[in-house]
């Protein structure tokens, strides 16, 4: 009897511990890592695109450096998300401004452990632009369409749209050929007549129209409720977030400063973005290009979390994966909402993505 009672007591204790470990709706069951205070250095990735304007403004105006204080900021630019995912999972990046599709992939590839979605950055800013004479989806049969990289955000959006219009990706006469090229190469290919269309982010969609003579067939905003969808978000390695929450908070303060600055100083914000693009690519954008690009985007720290389950399903429709990756537990807006509250701004909703 004593042994039986002891066994029951032990089972009850284990059950209680298990219940406690699930209490509070914390993000997934990654082993807890102790807070080590501000990091000595943070490695941040981003793209030289207008869709990464929050990052570009934050760098140009010194908002990140100001908030990070003694923490050294080391940056690395990328052309598309899949390369950034490799850097995050390989721990050569601590945080990254990245497209929604690759962000989901980073979470999925690490079995929900490697990264956390901590903020939004940009809504909108992607278009399908085409040659003159192409006026419908059916006109793309037998044509070649470019995207920045296989399985990147625009690649998934294109393939989903083609599937919705009963078009097959392939090399047949009635198929649509999809090729991958970095954005600058896509512009050259279009000018030379080697491709017929591109699903591209700003400013490249604008450059294809203004410099290459393309026409807009689809503005991706038209495919989403209220015209809003997360083009660029901010993710952080889970371990780094746990070890250095103060550094992540400083990074988010810098981003919020950049977003606020853009809202209040449009012309100066465009100049800041152009300054960084010239520094990164060697060439500033023409004013009509950056104006057109700016009109496509909305800078926001809200990652529009409610859209992520659909974005995960879109990867299946696009043929990128066989089953939709889970996004439960992907979001951790604890630090972001702390920053927003301190600034007197509304907090953002995780839409249930902060629970497994």
Automatic annotation (TrEMBL):
GO molecular function: ATPase-coupled transmembrane transporter activity
Protein name as it appears in the record: NitT/TauT family transport system substrate-binding protein
Classification lineage: Bacteria, Bacillati, Actinomycetota, Actinomycetes, Pseudonocardiales
Family annotation (InterPro entries): ABC_SsuA_sub-bd (IPR010067), NrtA/CpmA_ABC-bd_dom (IPR044527)
Places the protein is found: Cell inner membrane; Periplasm
Signal peptide as annotated in the record: 1-23
Family: Belongs to the bacterial solute-binding protein SsuA/TauA family.
Keywords in alphabetical order: Cell inner membrane, Cell membrane, Membrane, Signal, Transport
Coiled-coil portions: none
């Amino acid at each position: 009897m004593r042994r039986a009672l002891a066994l029951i007591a032990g089972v009850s204790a284990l059950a209680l511990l298990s219940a406690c470990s699930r209490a509070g709706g914390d993000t997934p069951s990654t082993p807890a890592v102790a807070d080590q205070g501000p990091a000595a250095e943070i490695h941040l990735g981003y793209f030289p695109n207008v869709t990464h304007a929050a990052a570009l403004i934050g760098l140009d105006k010194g908002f990140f450096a100001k908030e990070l204080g003694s923490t050294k900021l080391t940056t690395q630019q990328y052309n598309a998300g899949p390369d950034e995912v490799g850097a995050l999972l390989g721990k050569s990046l601590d945080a990254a401004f990245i497209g929604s599709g690759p962000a989901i992939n980073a979470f999925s590839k690490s079995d929900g452990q490697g990264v956390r979605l901590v903020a939004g950055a940009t809504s909108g800013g992607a278009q399908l632009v085409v040659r003159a004479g192409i006026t419908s989806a059916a006109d793309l049969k037998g044509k070649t369409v470019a995207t920045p990289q296989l399985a990147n955000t625009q690649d998934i959006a294109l393939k989903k749209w083609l599937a919705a219009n009963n078009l097959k990706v392939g090399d047949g006469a009635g198929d649509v050929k999809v090729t991958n090229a970095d954005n600058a190469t896509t512009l050259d290919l279009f000018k030379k007549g080697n491709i017929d269309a591109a699903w591209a982010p700003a400013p490249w969609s604008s450059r294809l129209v203004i410099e290459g003579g393309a026409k807009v067939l689809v503005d991706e905003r038209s495919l989403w409720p209220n015209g809003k969808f997360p083009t660029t978000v901010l993710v952080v390695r889970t371990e780094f977030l746990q070890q250095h929450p103060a550094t992540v908070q400083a990074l988010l303060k810098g981003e919020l400063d950049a977003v606020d600055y853009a809202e209040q100083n449009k012309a100066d914000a465009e100049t800041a973005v152009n300054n960084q693009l010239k520094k990164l690519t060697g060439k500033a954008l023409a004013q009509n290009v950056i104006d057109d690009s700016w009109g496509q985007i909305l800078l926001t720290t809200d990652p529009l979390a409610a859209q992520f389950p659909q974005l995960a399903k879109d990867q299946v429709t696009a043929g990128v994966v066989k089953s939709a990756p889970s996004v439960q537990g992907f979001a951790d807006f604890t630090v972001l909402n702390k920053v927003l509250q301190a600034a007197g701004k509304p907090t953002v909703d995780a839409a249930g993505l902060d629970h497994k």
